[in-house]
Amino acid sequence: MDVGILGFGAAEIGFSGASVGEVERLLDEAFSVGVNVIDTAPLYCGSEELIGKAAAGRRDEYYLFSKVGNPANPTGREVDYRRYLEESKVATPGDWFPDSIEKSINTSLKRLRTDHIDVIHLHCCSEEILRQDEVLNVLEHAKSAGKIRYTGYSGDGKDARFAVQSGYFDSLMTSINIADQVAIDTTVLNAAESGMGVVAKRPIANRAWFFRERPDDVYFGYYVEYWNRLRALSYDFLKSGGNASVGEALRFTLSVPGVHTAIVGTTNPDRFAENAALLSQGMMKEEEIRAIRDRWSEVAFLEWVGMI
Questions:
Q1: Largest CB tally within 10 Å, which of 21, 120, 211, 233?
Q2: SS in 3 state form for 211-251?
Q3: How many C-beta atoms lie closer than 10 Å to residue 237's C-beta?
Q4: Tell me: the pLDDT tens digits for 271-306?
Q5: What CA–CA distance (Å, rounded) separates 212 from 255?
Q6: What is the DSSP string of 82-126?
Q7: Which residues lie below 8 Å from residue 245, measured CB to CB, with a gap of 6+?
Q8: How many C-beta neighbours within 10 Å does residue 2 have?
């Protein structure tokens, strides 16, 4: 697949309750600047349905990524979309039974109004699950049937390392940004050397530095965690704020060796052109990357693990 360096993360359109018309406009703007990857998941509260309605007639314009497994909410709290999952009769959070995975793929195809998904990522499952042949066999059967083209793993930490080392997967989706650099040293390089596609999620750390005060615990607590980390890291280039700081953060992620595309979530159609413009100056120079990496090495705590 010849993916563009910027992809569209469709979680926010589901969580925000976007309309089909709003998603159509988002995709118009995204495609106009070369975005050709859409990443979604059953967990993202209606995201798949929205993509299916807004983009089914343009299937040859984009690569489609989705997920199976639906991990439980990391905060442990009951949230509205859990009821959505139950009512939608897809695999329940953390459900790795083979028949549930098969059902999830089939349901995603219907929601997305397509006959194939380019990459299905296992959504943050454990090494224990990854060692179960029956789980991987379901993916092989779906691939043989033409329902999916490639298999991937989405996650971080030791489970992601095992997924890479297993030699089974075609793609790794993992957290990479100025506040989340563990994967750079533990999985990304190995994945690239193995010929895997590498997808960076949360490439701008949810723009957490834009909050003057500690943000509310939204979006699984990622804003809070990244805000805390960035306060400690105190990068000079973030102090100016604005789009310039976003550009530096995004350029860092895309300059990491082995990264092929970065998934950016938004409900603002202007964001795609803005991000494309920010990247017009090209990738970061080696000394710029090294300064950010050195600061991370100086400040990062052991508990600053990759955010799943």
A1: 120
A2: CCCCCCCCHHHHHHHHHHHHHHHCCHHHCCCHHHHHHHHHH
A3: 15
A4: 999 999 999 989 999 999 999 999 999 999 999 999
A5: 28
A6: HHHHHHHT-PPTT---HHHHHHHHHHHHHHHT-S-EEEEEEES--
A7: 209, 237, 238, 239
A8: 6
DSSP of 155-205: --HHHHHHHHHHS--SEEEEE-BTTB-HHIIIIIHHHHHTT-EEEEESTTG
User: What is the spatial distance between Cα 283 and Cα 279, in angstroms, rounded to a whole number?
Assistant: 7
According to DSSP, residue 17 is labeled T
Is residue 93 very low, low, confident or very high in pLDDT (cuts 50, 70, 90)? low
φ and ψ at residue 143, rounded to 5 degrees = -70, -45
Q: Is the confidence at residue 4, as pLDDT, over 60?
A: yes
Note the Cα 175 to chain centre separation in Å. Answer: 7
> What single-letter amino acid sits at 203?
P
Map out the domains of the chain with their CATH numbers.
6-205+237-299 (3.20.20.100)
pLDDT in tens, 134-156: 999 999 999 999 999 999 999 99
